[in-house]
Design brief:
Blueprint (H helix, E strand, L loop, with lengths): L3 H12 L3 E5 L6 H6 L4 E5 L3 H8 L2 H7 L11 E5 L7 H12 L4 E6 L17 E5 L5 H4 L17 H10 L3 H6 L2 H23 L5 H13 L3 E2 L2 H8 L3 H13 L3 E4 L15 E4 L9 H21 L5 E7 L5 E8 L2 E9 L8 H10 L3 E6 L16 E4 H5 L4
Parallel strand pairs: 1-4, 1-5, 2-3, 3-4, 11-12, 12-13
Antiparallel strand pairs: 6-8, 7-8, 9-10, 10-11
């Protein structure tokens, strides 16, 4: 399977001098992506020997990677999980400034690579960041990505969408399609983030409360989050809950979107909605379908932004009259698409789509249905509210 990011990384290293910073959840495929690019030398922070080399500084790294020997092809150096070292930014900056002409540099991490603000001097201008997401429908269907933006409209096998919603988009469980393996993998992945990653990368000491918060957020996937209510459940302050939620977002356990309020009369702007990176852990039914669609839209927003195609942000819409649309994708600050998610095509077309399209001026307004058979039609040709097969939208996205 050719991942969307492989072409992006090949182009990056053929045209740019900057480091490539790849961030995303554990086991999402960052290391596998880099393994497709040769020649390569890897330093992994979790390996004690590699840790000694990295902490010894730029010259020690260069000696280990034989950068003092002329090579016809600059080697690709992959630094994995080095964000666990508080001074990683200082070392990378010094190494890049001295050896950028002799090597291509990739940095991977399972936490946001700006997590440690004490990292030291800025690396501005020295890197481009790429956020790596789970597999999308277009990827597992093998559809090409035209001009780096959208895939061509095609009919897709309904079994592919069923696989994604049941097993998630992380490559190993998605490709194995084994319920037993999926349950074991999901439990291990969740425990690693809620226990090991929190302990290793943060100063949080309330481990039992963090674990319980993770369970609450999982149960509330694709729903609004009230930090005050969560604080009462956890017997903690609202500020503590907000801080713990930021930690779990930084560690790619969950993500949040905020309501879009610009030019929306009587908009509700306080409570965010939470979603899981592993949407297969969300409650079955409508919430899981919404999480899956949201994951695809967020991936598209990140991909288009990271590859320089514009500034894309994801929101939702809700006002005091209880009108609501699940997702609004803004392009360069302007509403572009509205997406309402339904599990059944029998649901009537939501009148909120037409209302919010008038208020926002969004170009597209779709109600996607999970059980509507793929037609292979071009949903981007529609400029008025319309029902769309979920697979026909998702298969178009990166």
């Amino acid at each position: 399977m050719n991942r969307t990011y492989e072409t992006v990384l090949r182009e990056h290293f053929s045209t740019n001098r900057q480091m490539a910073l790849l961030s995303g959840p554990r086991q999402v495929g960052k290391t596998t992506l880099l393994s497709l690019l040769e020649p390569k030398v890897t330093l992994n922070w979790d390996d004690p020997a590699d840790k000694q080399i990295f902490t010894a500084g730029a010259n020690a790294i260069a000696a280990h990677c034989n950068l003092d020997t002329l090579s016809p092809i600059p080697p690709l150096l992959a630094f994995d999980e080095i964000h666990k070292y508080p001074k990683w930014k200082n070392i990378l900056k010094g190494f890049f400034d001295k050896y950028a002409a002799r090597a291509k540099i990739a940095v991977t991490g399972s936490a946001r690579l700006d997590l440690h603000k004490r990292g030291g001097d800025s690396m501005r201008g020295r890197y481009f960041g790429y956020r790596i997401h789970p597999l999308s429908l277009g990827e597992i269907a093998g559809l090409p990505l035209d001009n780096g933006f959208l895939r061509p409209p095609r009919k897709t096998d309904p079994a592919l969408l069923d696989t994604l919603v049941r097993f998630g988009g992380f490559p190993e469980p998605c490709l194995k399609t084994s319920p037993k393996f999926h349950r074991q993998w999901s439990r291990a992945q969740r425990d690693q983030v809620l226990r090991d990653e929190v302990r290793d990368l943060t100063a949080v000491r309330e481990m039992s409360q963090i674990h319980l918060l993770g369970e609450f957020l999982t149960a509330q996937a694709a729903s609004s989050v009230n930090f005050t209510t969560l604080g009462k459940h956890l017997q903690a302050s609202t500020d503590s809950v907000r801080r713990w939620c930021d930690t779990l977002e930084n560690l790619y356990f969950c993500w949040f979107i905020r309501p879009y309020s610009r030019n929306i009369p009587r908009s509700l702007i306080k409570e965010p909605k939470t979603f899981l990176w592993d949407w297969s852990a969300a409650p079955a039914g409508g919430h899981r379908w919404e999480n899956l669609v949201g994951g695809h839209l967020l991936k598209a927003a990140h991909f288009w932004t990271d590859t320089g195609l514009g500034d894309f942000t994801l929101h939702f819409l809700r006002d005091k009259e209880k009108r609501e649309v699940d997702f609004l994708l803004a392009r360069d600050g302007k509403p572009w698409l509205l997406v309402e998610v339904k599990s059944s095509a029998d649901a009537p077309l939501s009148p909120a789509l037409a209302y919010f399209q008038r208020e926002t001026g969004a170009q597209h307004a779709w109600q996607v249905a999970a059980d509507l058979p793929s037609a292979g039609a071009d949903c981007f040709a529609a400029t008025t509210p319309v029902k769309v097969p979920m697979s026909d939208l998702l298969s178009r996205l990166p």
